[in-house]
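Dear colleague,

Thank you for sharing your sequence with our group. We've completed the structure prediction you requested, and as agreed, I am returning the results in plain text so they can be pasted directly into your records. Please verify that the sequence below matches your submission; if there's any discrepancy, let me know and we will rerun it promptly.
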Amino acid sequence: MTNFIKRTISGIGFAAIMLAALLTDKIVFGVVMLVALIIMMKEFLRMTCGKDYRYSQMLSIFAGATLFTLTYLFKAFDFPGRLIILAFIPVFIVMINSLYVKDKSRFDKFANLYTAILYIAVPWSVFNFAVFNGEGDFNGILLVCFFAIVWGSDVGAYLFGITLGQKYGKKLFPSISPKKSWIGFWGGMLTSVIVAIVLHYVGLFEFPLLHCIFMAILLDVAGVYGDLIESQWKRHYDVKDSGNVIPGHGGLLDRFDSALIAIPIGVIYLVVMNVL
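Please find the predicted structure tokens below.
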């Protein structure tokens, strides 16, 4: 009961912070999302690099934060888009710094410094394209809808998986996540489509219904892959959670693993279809 209360309170607090970031103004959004990015990169690097190359880890986080910040300034304040290329400079610094590391006995871990940028910072920066229009006006409703679909899929997959998936049907990816089942997968997809339809009819998901349904399916599939990708990292490094920043829930990377893949896919779809 104590753990349930802790999970409930921390979950409500986490949801409140996210809603404040997405529904108030662009400054709050920028600050909250930048802090979240830094925490997730720190969690990933702590999991993969441990205490090795601390200074290089800080450089990697700085590079990721620079990419997000420049993208945010471009979308929010009409910062010249061509200057986003400046984000490459900290990455080059990470590369150059590797030459001056004295202890190269675990030099293979340096690859994780670049992976953190590609895996977390790049997709997280794409979120800016979901909340700002061409004039820099802020509206977080689309991102709220995306998160609702992704987390709705997670809840549906869990409920169907725990009630039916453990008894019937085949496992989805037993070598990486033994508890995930195909029944849970289809249950999550059903839930994500239902959430998208509801959001459409209450006027939040403002796209044609078929677009909404197709996006829900895309987000669901991409979200499952995002969850499995993080599970593979955790299984390889034998850790249960990426961190403990949310009591009872784990780290921020545990909460956003699905969204890191799913939401950029949703944004790409809208851009390709010329509706964003």
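Summary note from our side: The chain has ten helices and two strands.

Kind regards,
the structure core
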